[in-house]
Amino acid sequence: MCDVRSLTAVLLTGIFGAIWISGGNAWSQETENTAAMPAAVESAAAKPAAGEKAAETPAVEKKVETPAPEAIVLGGFRMSFNPGNPSPGWRYLWNAAGEVGKAIHYRPLIWNKSGAYTPDSRFPAGSPAKGLMLDMLSGYPGQGSAAAPDKLDHYVIIAYTMQKDSTGNVWLTDGSIMKPIGGEKETIELQIYVNDTLKYSDNVSTSETPVLFQQDLGQLKKGDTIYAAVGPDNNDAEDMFHLDFNLKELPAGIEPDEQLNLIKPPADIPEVKRLPGGKPSPAFLEKHDAFIRQAAAVNPDVLFLGDSITAEWLEAGRAIWSKHVTVYKPLNLGISGDRTENVLWRLSNGEIDKIKPKVIVLMIGTNNLYMYSVDEICEGVAAILNELNDRLPESKILLLGILPRAKSADARVRAKIRQINEQLAKMADGKNIRFLDFGGELVEPDGSISEEIMPDFMHLSESGYNIWFDEMSPYLIEMLGLDKE
């Protein structure tokens, strides 16, 4: 169960507290050392002895700070992923002819019409490649040795061949891997090779949290190949994995910057939206800066905060917005693709610093559904509510449930959304935070979703926004203290 105020306190205190303490100690030591010389000693050192000519003050040599050497980015798995046409230097393989660790055993994977790399043009049904596939978001190794006829563990292998000699050391950085499904004792194996030399290995258990890794691969020559291989733990269980990493060249003796969690940053800690490879998204930052300027100019009574479903009030829902919503002096701060951690980043980086809305309409979390658990998503929403309460204590919040997704009522995601909304409802106090779940008004009597309401079974049509307004307006009138007449 998610408690609005205390849910994230332990995590935030543990993480940010450690940083504060470390920074505090470093500051204290520097200050104490600077102040250690007594004033009398300073005075004596500054005055010449009697009859002695004052010594000339030597010229102080100015120190020129040398900028830290920049990394040369060679590429990265998701950064360089190109469906059906691999980027220069990149290949996608599997160990068809023998054990992993010997490049002579590797064979190419082929892009198929279903949108993945597999050992042939179909999703393989037969052994030993049963289930083996790779796309930009996830992958599956093939059969394990306990089930495969050749008694080998079959690995998905991502390869990068050096296009020229490195002058510094090549690092595998920002590595993150997660096995999101399977039993507690089931694992997958990650192995990193340069040519046929093993440089790094790990055994990854089923978990909601990624394992982070990085490795110095040394100075490499043109033609040297880096292999990242993911294989089963000899069984034939559900070995789905998420993976990402970057390859960078750094001067010898220089280590990479702080490692990024590229595949699943925490849902309840502020995080900028990033491009594949880790750079902050310029489009996201540009929209964020525009929102700061817009908020200061409008100073709204009603603030809409969320992702693309909120943003598209101004597109698919524009007619309803113009006719019915603008009378409430609104401001729409929805950004397509936002997850809870992205909204937290925006709130903590100035978007609401110069406004005092009377009501905040918050809908967020649908973009977290794929990678995050029910509890993690609720923790992310709770962190946003805490941030809003801290920064805008006089504003009331209308928290909206996550809208239903997928055409069929039996879709697995529907049950997950119901569980989340049950927890979100408990965050409302009926006074400063109200909860509204109008998802039931968007579905047919059999629970299915029609294309007239949600053309892609996720985003709303104009009719869908009309339903949203009809369900929301009584709450706005009450929370704004308006005359119901």
* Assigned CATH class of the largest domain: Alpha Beta
Q: What is the terminal-to-terminal distance?
A: 39 Å
Global geometry: globular
Report the portion of residues in β strands: 15-25%
CATH superfamily of the largest domain: SGNH hydrolase
Integer tally of domains? 2
State the strand order across the main sheet: 3-2-8-13-10-11
- The DSSP helix count reads 10
Largest sheet: 6 strands, antiparallel
- Using only CA atoms, what is the Rg? 28 Å
Uncertain ranges = 3-58
Helix content: 25-40%
Q: How many β-strand runs?
A: 19
Structural class: alpha+beta
| Overall pLDDT metric | 86
CATH architecture assignment of the largest domain: 3-Layer(aba) Sandwich
Give me the CATH fold name of the largest domain. Answer: Rossmann fold
Name the helix and strand elements from N-terminus to C-terminus, one letter apiece. HHEHEEEEEEEEEEEEEHEHHEHEHEHEH
